[in-house]
Amino acid sequence: MSKPPPKPVKPGQVKVFRALYTFEPRTPDELYFEEGDIIYITDMSDTNWWKGTSKGRTGLIPSNYVAEQAESIDNPLHEAAKRGNLSWLRECLDNRVGVNGLDKAGSTALYWACHGGHKDIVEMLFAQPNIELNQQNKLGDTALHAAAWKGYADIVQLLLAKGARTDLRNNEKKLAFDMATNAACASLLKKKQGTGIWFQFSLLWWHPD
């Protein structure tokens, strides 16, 4: 049973695939790629030949080859952010993969970068002019919630300096401050909120300055 054809690319969107086999071009206009290469499809207006980019080269690819001989990658930017793969993230951005796209959990790539503690990924995403800092996923968590919960004070500091909101509550009515798992994150968030809350951990007391 053959796979259903990929949905057409919407304006401003990029479809991303991983080649399962090497493709040998027959004309100079066609794109050469090898098994495992990532292919970014930017134009599917011709039903027979799609325009794609791989390893910085752009050319035409038979649409039936992509449909039958390539694996779709639904959220490449998210995957790169989760893995801390800076070169893949840069390649995705260079090929105009949307920086604020949401995965099935409603999370952005920035959320996953903060969740994984990948500071270099966070900094690269911050360099994008339209990056959305405060997107809440299906659980209501923001990137700041993730960084606080995982205890990455350096990333909490980056988010706060960039202007991330501290007043957003998730579905459990918790602020990022409420989810902080260490004193460093709690201190940063408390200073930003300007509250006089005392924060107690099971084995650790933290006092305001």
Describe the structure.
It comes from Equus asinus (Donkey). This is Osteoclast-stimulating factor 1. It is found in: Cytoplasm. This protein is of the alpha+beta class and 209 residues long. It has two domains: 15-72, SH3 Domains (SH3 type barrels, Roll); 76-181, Serine Threonine Protein Phosphatase 5, Tetratricopeptide repeat (Alpha Horseshoe), CATH 1.25.40.20. The chain has nine helices and seven strands, in the order ββββαβααααααααββ. The protein has helices at residues 63-69, 76-83, 86-94, 109-116, 119-126, 143-150, 153-162, 176-179, 183-193; strands spanning 15-19, 38-43, 49-54, 57-62, 70-72, 199-200, 205-206. The strands form two sheets. The protein has a five-stranded antiparallel sheet, with helices on one face. Strands 6-7 form a two-stranded antiparallel ribbon. A hairpin with a 4-residue loop joins strand 6 (199-200) and strand 7 (205-206). Helix 4 packs parallel to helix 6 and helix 5 (119-126) runs parallel beside helix 7. The radius of gyration is 21 Å and the shape is elongated. The protein starts with 14 loop residues before the first strand and ends with a strand.
